[in-house]
Amino acid sequence: MSSAVVVGSGPNGLAAAVHLAGNGVSVRVLEAADTIGGGCRSSELTLPGLLHDDCSAIHPLAVASPFLAGLGLEAEGLRWLWPRVQLAHVLDGGREAVLWKDTARTAEGLGADGPAWDGLVGRVARGFGPLLDDLLGPHLRVPSHPVRFARFGLDAVLPASAVVRRWRGDEARALFGGLAAHAFARLDAPFTASVGLVLGASAHAVGWPIAQGGSRAITDALAARLRALGGTIETGRRVTSLEELDGADVAMLDLAPGAAARLLGPRQPRRTAAAYRRYRHGPAAYKVDFAVEGGIPWRSEHAREAGTVHVGGTFEEIAAAEADTVRGRMPERPFVLVGQQYLDDPGRSRGGIHPVWAYAHVPHAYAGDATEALIAQIERFAPGFRGRIRATAVRGPAALEAHNANYVGGDIGTGANDGFQLLARPRLTADPYATGVPGAWLCSAATPPGAGAHGMPGYRAAAAALAWLARR
């Protein structure tokens, strides 16, 4: 029987482990932290009994993931919950743009801009299923559905700033801008429209669900499946070299490229090691979790029932803030994402005190205190919010990296999403999972298709490893 060791127990490491074990490989997972899950953990961060997601929280691409969906993890206790409102983008004066699962309802709410929204985002949503294999795979390959993918690509290659010219009202422009800002990149950069298109279309096609009981339920379910397949998991096991893997046939590395290069050491070809060390990390998140009495008093009606709220104002404000973070400047009014998971999963709350998840986009490795700027942004659109806060838990970029070493400088996407790196991460190669060391594969979010709890980098890296084992 072939053997494999997986270094790291985030959703990608566990996905790789499950796929290998399901194909007859003996698998061990080694995790440096005391708990599994990487960025997919949940904890009582503010007050006893209030359950917060440590990082990953909203999961459109996880529920759509061909790999996760095919595992039937409901048998391991995973339950998806959908909010009534997928996303609200709040604007001054109580205005808002609302992203419903129903494309027609979203378009109707955008008024005169509705037909153009439906003609772009709605069109991608209607072909979302066939696009998924290409969207969630290596980018430098012949697509499975070339005509459909080419049509998507004509819009996806554009900067978000070019796409929003289709709309005249603040609502549609801001809604798309907030979606595109998930790239942590300048919104006038090529390909930033792709992020807005994928996230907007996913809301219409599959919704933006949460995992009941916290995001840790996803990795707990994967871990349960792995154990059922005979795999084992060891926590508190930091790996510093391949020699510690006891001669396993396969090493799967759920690591950032720089850490992988250090672990592989002189075994890795010089050019590949240099590419891993040159790999760029992007702007950071600054996370603040709140215990809020009575919830957030949003001015906007639908924000009060939205699973996710984008807080950043107009497209122009968001674009300026994102440009600042890329340049290394802390914006006065940062783009803020707010999660209200408790609305659909009330077991996360205690009485009238609710856990609110939030983070702001800040410069890479930002060492300042962005807490007040984040609170001020929410207060701007929800007067009285400050007075309802009963406790906070803050994790700036350094603390995020300490909690998850893959988040270098607070970059929760495990790599900058701009320029050439967006297409060729972690390096230019037909096999982005290969490390150049026989039997060693990179399976983190630094490989295609990138960040998220969908497990696709782990699955695809494991598939490459199985093909290699079959050729031996």
UniProtKB/TrEMBL annotation:
Gene3D superfamilies named among the record's database cross-references: FAD/NAD(P)-binding domain
Highest taxon, organism lineage: Bacteria
PANTHER family on file: DEHYDROGENASE-RELATED, PHYTOENE DEHYDROGENASE
Name recorded for this polypeptide: NAD(P)/FAD-dependent oxidoreductase
Pfam family membership, one: NAD_binding_8
